[in-house]
Amino acid sequence: MESIRWLLTVAEVEVSESCLTCCCGSSTDGVLMFQQVPMVEIDGMKLIQTKAILHYIAEKYNLHGKDLKDRVMINMYSEGLMDLMEMIMILPFLPDPKPKLDEIQSKANERYLPVYEKALTGPVYLVGGKLSLADVLLVECTLMLEEKFPAILKDFPNVKSFQGRMIQIPAINRFLQPGSKRKPPPGENYAKTAIEVFRIKLPTQ
Amino acid sequence: MAERPVLYYFNGRGKMESIRWLLTVAEVEFDEVLLVTREQYVKLLNDGALMFQQVPLVEIDGMKLIQTKAILNYIAEKYNLHGKDPKDRVMINMYSEGLMDLMEMIIMVPFSPDPKPKLDNIQSKAKERYLPVYEKALTGPVYLVGGKLSLADVLLVECTLMLEEKFPAILKDFSNIKSFQGRMIQIPAINRFLQPGSKRKPQPDEKYLKNVMENSCISLP
């Protein structure tokens, strides 16, 4: 859900949240199309599937490119970032996170960050000279990476400058202050709650 | 004259198959470069063709597109298979994402040392989580969204055929979906795609698995 929170923040849309802490009624009243969250109630609809939600919000608030060609670039960049963030997201659910952390660091350094570094040689934003979903996800992702690997951007000055510019945006700046709707990195309780509410079976390794 | 799109992938279904389906339904002729040697893959990497070092890769309209969902959305929008407005679009995307989650589970089965528990999980998720949604959506409507053919319908046909390959009777309690499938396979382009000799790829076998493992440095969990 965090990417959705980021996007709504940048679009300057106020939201209210209902945090799931128990399994009561969530699967039986037909609210969740595929019995999964995230779920966002917006414009009279109950939207599920993170990417469907992100695209809807991006399109609604003009963060999804001016034409088809811009849109596909935004989507390619976004999908890559979501793949990388998903690796970070599942860490709390792994019995032994260390090998996964190593993999994330090397994939970030070798596969992903070089792409954004190159794309930001010159341009202020990733696509089409204007802020888009891809830029929002890049800020989110680089901050998440630095939480795990504080010096990870040292060889990526364009990405670091980009991050610096983005966090000056007032809505983002406020989001990064204590007391905002931004959620902290997952603690012990987070994984435990998710496992309990959704009766997740962890893979055995 | 516009050039035909070129698809770069292993010689099998994998993540490219949904793209093959969508181009077929859009009646877009395409060419394929099937990656059967490591040298081909390394050349693509060295040429800088693969943004994140991954396939699928589709060359189309002068661009080298990667990331399955970005490619599907591009093709769907270009060929009017992506809804008439944001509300239709988000419904199409929700339905599509669910189907892609389910198909991904099936795609991963050959890479698992013990497929049986995975297959059981797929069957129960299909019957309890996914199929009921599409069964309900097709009570009345001919297509899933907005009264016209879309990406979601294409993925639903693809998915139901894949499910029946593993579980032949899986649609017996889902009569709307079965009828939908029946209607869709009458569409001439789909009908031709289901005949021998088309660009449709067969189910993965040992040779496919070996090809993917050798040529892309995939390490199994």
TrEMBL record, chain A:
Keyword Transferase: yes
Keyword S-adenosyl-L-methionine attached: no
Pfam families to which the protein is assigned, alphabetical: GST_C, GST_N
Residue ranges of every copy of the GST N-terminal domain listed in the record: 1-65
GO biological process, one term: glutathione metabolic process
Assigned keywords, A-Z: Transferase
Location of the GST C-terminal domain: 67-187
GO MF term (any one): glutathione transferase activity
Listed transmembrane segments: none
EC number: 2.5.1.18
InterPro entries: Glutathione-S-Trfase_C-like, Glutathione-S-Trfase_C_sf, Glutathione_S-Trfase, Glutathione_S-Trfase_N, GST_alpha, GST_C, GST_superfamily, Thioredoxin-like_sf
Broad EC category: transferase
Entry superkingdom: Eukaryota
Family statement drawn from the similarity comment of this UniProt entry: Belongs to the GST superfamily. Alpha family.
Protein's name in the database: Glutathione S-transferase
Organism: Amphilophus citrinellus (Midas cichlid)
From TrEMBL, chain B:
Pfam family, one: GST_N
Domain called GST N-terminal: residue spans: 3-83
Superkingdom in the source lineage: Eukaryota
Residue intervals of the GST C-terminal domain: 85-205
Biological processes per GO annotation: glutathione metabolic process
Catalysed reactions, as listed in the record: RX + glutathione = an S-substituted glutathione + a halide anion + H(+)
Record-level Gene Ontology MF annotations: glutathione transferase activity
Gene3D superfamilies per record: 1.20.1050.10, Glutaredoxin
EC number per UniProt: 2.5.1.18
UniProt KW keywords: Transferase
Protein family: Belongs to the GST superfamily. Alpha family.
PANTHER family from the UniProt entry: GLUTATHIONE S-TRANSFERASE, GLUTATHIONE TRANSFERASE
Protein name: Glutathione S-transferase
Organism: Amphilophus citrinellus (Midas cichlid)
